Amino acid sequence: MITVFGSINMDLIATTTRLPKPGETVAGQSFTTAAGGKGANQALAARRAGSTVRMAGAVGEDGFAEPALTLLKEAGVLLDTVRPVSDPTGTAIILVGGDGENMIAVVPGANGAVSAEDAEKSVGLLSERDILMMQMEVPADAMEAAFRLAKTQGTTTIFNTAPLTDDAIRLACLANIVVSNETEFELLVGRSGLSADERVSEMQQMAERSGQTLVVTLGADGVVAIHKGQILRATGLKIAPVDTVGAGDTFCGYLAASLDQGLDFASALRRAAVAGSLACLKAGAQPSIPTSDDVAGHL
């Protein structure tokens, strides 16, 4: 089983011909709402990839709570460790430009009420055969409690460092597998403007020190990883992106599910990279997540 300990949001999405510059107003083209939150997105991706998944987190007692959980319920994600709280359901305000790139502001809401007690209730159900996946959209103390409990139980932990904060840098050392994009990895190691070779060198040094598996996603250039001392690379698909907002979460969910299902790490990377590419072909983080059959058809 995969347990995702993380955020649950409603995404409020507006499309524009291009993203505005600071202080600028641009005309919008369309508006829609969709279930989101990095935790929920990754949980749905892992479930659509074919794994048994439990979501742990919090929603408000408001009109956004039910639609935020609808696709998870329909997919069969276990929601017994999602609790209602008095704070409003988390929201993300997303602008998507004509080239598919996006700008996002996240309001934590109920996600900020997730606690160490929630970690004990959800992670306490796991064993050495399970996977725990987390991101940086719930409080750091709750995440640290989850990491430490998972370690005592021998549970494999996957940590997506988005959005990267000072707490993310501190918590990254507690995970077995760390997934970052290019920008996040540079912040993680404290160096900017890395070339491809420099990035791999930094990854190798970090992996040697920590014993961790490190994964860096590279957008259209695929993904590079250091796993058990080996440099592994995978590419996605050549596409014309419609919306990239769900690509990273889809990648993480499919990576976790592929490992849960027994794929070797190189095959898991390739499957996740293809899934991430397919997630760019539709609007919305959760509606865009492909099914296992969709991904298999493109591998």
Automatic annotation (TrEMBL):
Alphabetized UniProt keyword annotations: ATP-binding, Carbohydrate metabolism, Cytoplasm, Kinase, Magnesium, Metal-binding, Nucleotide-binding, Potassium, Transferase
Top enzyme class: transferase
Pathway(s) where this gene product acts: Carbohydrate metabolism; D-ribose degradation; D-ribose 5-phosphate from beta-D-ribopyranose: step 2/2
EC number(s) stated in the UniProt entry for this protein: 2.7.1.15
Residues reported to bind substrate: N9, M10, D11, G37, K38, G39, A40, N41, E137, D249
Purpose of the protein: Catalyzes the phosphorylation of ribose at O-5 in a reaction requiring ATP and magnesium. The resulting D-ribose-5-phosphate can then be used either for sythesis of nucleotides, histidine, and tryptophan, or as a component of the pentose phosphate pathway.
Subunit organization: Homodimer.
Family membership noted in the UniProt record: Belongs to the carbohydrate kinase PfkB family. Ribokinase subfamily.
Name of the protein this chain belongs to: Ribokinase
Gene: rbsK
